[in-house]
Amino acid sequence: MSELQKPGPDKSKKRVNKGGNSPDIVVDWIQEGLYNGRYVPGQKLVEADLIATLNISRGPVREALKRLHGKGITKQIPYRGAHIRAFSRKEAADLLTVLEPMTSLMAKLAAEAVAAGASTKPLAGIQQWINRFQRGSVNDVTFVGKRQHLYQTLMEIGGNVELPYIMPIALLHLLRLQSFPYLDRKTRQQVIDEYMRIIDAVLNGDATRAARVGKQHVQAAKKRLAALPDEAFPDFRASS
What transmembrane ranges does the database entry give (predicted)? Predict the structure, then answer.
């Protein structure tokens, strides 16, 4: 089993909340857990555990779970409670359909900003961790988390203040967590090559090429999605 398919070790036996009773504490804790391996798609969120770990009352926990459900990060399963969302094949395909034009726009805006004089320094760190992953010095959990950083960096360079609010970054991260364990090394390298083409177009300030390779990246992701085995999706697991 991949490290992305099982929760990471629980290092939170001590109560981490030193004060406050806000749902925001719970929301932040769960979202942070998606990036450090504490939570994985399909994992049940136990209210009693959250209450004890965060030293918080039941009301804020339930409010937080409602908020996360509204963001599409959790799902409420009848008689089984709240779980970290795991996409069905159709849900994943629908998400990528939405992402295709947005990713193209994101890359285009970043390249236009670079052509107009924006700093490219933030992309240097992105290239470094890509190189580290290729050398095998970055694990799967770290790599999947860092992929989000690429999108965030491109949006920051592009400078459109509204795009971060409508770009479904958290949902994309969940889909990556769910699908990445099923990609072989060759396919993962193809993903990296696509990222490098986007970065190269942005660094050169070529907005037309950046828009094109951004769109091609999501189109390739759709093909990878279609090739995933049925066990990658909860609708299959539920019927087995």
Answer: none
CA–CA gap between residue 132 and residue 119 (Å, rounded): 23
Given a contact cutoff of 8 angstroms between Cβ atoms, the answer to whether 209 and 103 are in contact is no
Same domain, 173 and 54: no
Tens of pLDDT along the chain (240 residues) come to: 454 455 554 544 445 555 567 999 999 999 999 888 899 999 999 999 999 999 999 999 999 999 999 999 999 888 889 999 999 999 999 999 999 999 999 999 999 999 999 999 888 778 777 777 766 655 566 666 677 789 999 999 999 999 999 999 889 989 998 998 898 888 988 988 999 999 999 999 999 999 999 999 999 999 999 999 999 997 644 433
38 shares a domain with 129 = no
C-beta atoms surrounding 95 within 10 Å: 20
C-beta of residue 140 within 8 angstroms of C-beta of residue 2: yes
Q: Which residue has the tokens 């770990």?
A: 53
One domain, residues 111 and 228? yes
pTM, rounded to two decimals: 0.83
The total of structural domains in the chain comes to: 2
